[in-house]
Amino acid sequence: MNSIPIELTNFFLSMQAGEVGAEALAACFADDAVYEEPFTGSARRHTGKEAIMRAMALGWEMPMIDTRIEIQRAATVDGEVHIAWTCHSPSIPGGKGSGLDRYRIKKGLIESLDTSLDGGD
Questions:
Q1: pTM of structure
Q2: Residue 86 contacts by C-beta under 8 Å, 6 or more apart in sequence?
Q3: Tell me: the pLDDT tens digits for 40-64?
Q4: Hey, where are the domains in the chain?
Q5: Where are the alpha helices (DSSP H) in 1-121?
């Protein structure tokens, strides 16, 4: 069994807190971190902590009610931490969505996060 690094446990907890977790969420990222995500319908790349936090803040404008993120599996692959997840919320069509996050962590901070939907490795 693989354990999830504390840095990513903190990331998931602060992300699920929404806007009130913004400061804790920002503290999870390196200043020059890169975040790639598909949540607006096409892949977007955000470079730097400020740009990442602006992207995260978009989700706070239309909060998802009763959101719960369930970790399906975690593994370390070629120096990356891969976490497959399912997000449960009545705000999502069908009540849930799933994806895969690929993280690189350096000196206790997320230096890159690549998110894909409906996925596994």
A1: 0.88
A2: 69, 70, 72, 96, 97, 98
A3: 788 999 999 999 999 999 878 776 6
A4: 6-117
A5: 6-16, 22-26, 49-61
